[in-house]
């Protein structure tokens, strides 16, 4: 039984191998036919191309490169038109060169402007810083002089405390006041404004009140309430004053009656 089964299996394998051989041969035959057909088509295309090129050569056409539309247009132009076209092209080239020069010059000016702006900004900051420092320390000399005056006041006060003498204190204060006035006039050109006996000047005087006066003429300063001062030629502080005005007729008659009454009283 085993031998019969083996023989049947061998027959079955032989049949399968024979079928495979037939299929492979059939496929190879088909491939050969397809290759032959492709080769024939290529040959046909080549022959057609050769015929087309031969016809173009007969007609005097260039087979490698065809004429562009621009070249065909140039061939239709006359000589004057070609000269005009060339001149226009030269002008365009010149204008393009000028434009490139202007662009480069513009970039240079832009760089220069940026540098100038940066320099000006640095200069502005430096000037502002110097101005702030000047404003902060401008009164340093005056402050030092005032400190010296304060030292004189302290010495005068200490001397008066030790001696307990009012005259000594007054003398010390007067000396300090004189020293301060001389310092302001000599070093800082600060001068007092003249008032009493002077004609009223609204530029330097500030009238607080007016009073009838027989001693002074009208619009004359008769009293000084607060001294005024000038710094160089500018009024630093106007003087507050009392100004004389004309005597009215009623007050004059009243004064005369008073004088008559006094004289009659003396006679009695």
Description:
Helix content is 71%, strand content 12%. The protein is mostly helical. It has a domain at 191-263: Nucleotide Exchange Factor Grpe, Chain A, domain 2 (Roll). Strand 4 and strand 5 form a beta hairpin. Helix 4 runs antiparallel to helix 5. The model is unreliable at 1-7, 30-41 and 61-67 (pLDDT under 50).
For the structure shown, list the relevant keywords.
268 residues, mainly alpha, Nucleotide Exchange Factor Grpe, Chain A, domain 2, three-stranded antiparallel beta sheet, 6 helices, elongated, disordered N terminus
Model regions low in confidence, pLDDT < 50 over at least 5 residues:
1-7, 30-41, 61-67
What sequence of helices (H) and strands (E) makes up the elements? Answer: HHHHHEEEEEEH
Radius of gyration, CA atoms, in whole angstroms: 63 Å
- As a percent range, the share of strand residues is 5-15%
């Amino acid at each position: 039984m085993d031998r019969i089964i083996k023989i049947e299996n061998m027959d079955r394998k032989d049949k399968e191998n024979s079928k495979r051989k037939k299929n492979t041969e059939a496929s190879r035959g088909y491939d050969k036919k397809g290759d032959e057909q492709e080769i024939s088509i290529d040959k046909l295309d080549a022959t057609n191309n050769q015929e087309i090129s031969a016809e173009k050569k007969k007609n005097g056409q260039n087979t490698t490169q065809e004429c562009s539309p621009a070249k065909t247009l140039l061939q239709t132009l006359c000589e004057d038109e070609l000269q005009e076209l060339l001149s226009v092209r030269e002008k365009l080239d010149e204008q393009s060169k000028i434009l490139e020069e202007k662009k480069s010059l513009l970039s240079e000016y832009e760089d220069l402007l940026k540098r100038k702006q940066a320099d000006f900004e640095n200069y502005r900051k430096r000037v502002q810083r110097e101005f702030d420092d000047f404003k902060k320390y401008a009164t340093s000399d005056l402050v030092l002089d005032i400190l010296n005056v304060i030292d004189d006041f302290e010495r005068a006060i200490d001397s008066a405390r030790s001696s307990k003498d009012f005259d000594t204190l007054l003398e010390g204060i007067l000396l300090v006041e004189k020293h301060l006035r001389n310092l302001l006039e000599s070093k800082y050109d600060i001068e007092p404004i003249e008032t009493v006996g002077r004609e009223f000047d609204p530029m330097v005087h500030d009238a607080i009140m007016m009073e009838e006066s027989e001693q002074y003429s009208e619009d004359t300063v008769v009293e000084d309430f607060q001294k005024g001062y000038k710094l160089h030629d500018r009024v630093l502080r106007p003087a507050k004053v009392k100004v004389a005005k004309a005597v009215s007729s009623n007050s004059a008659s009243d004064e005369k009656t008073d004088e008559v009454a006094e004289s009659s009283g003396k006679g009695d």
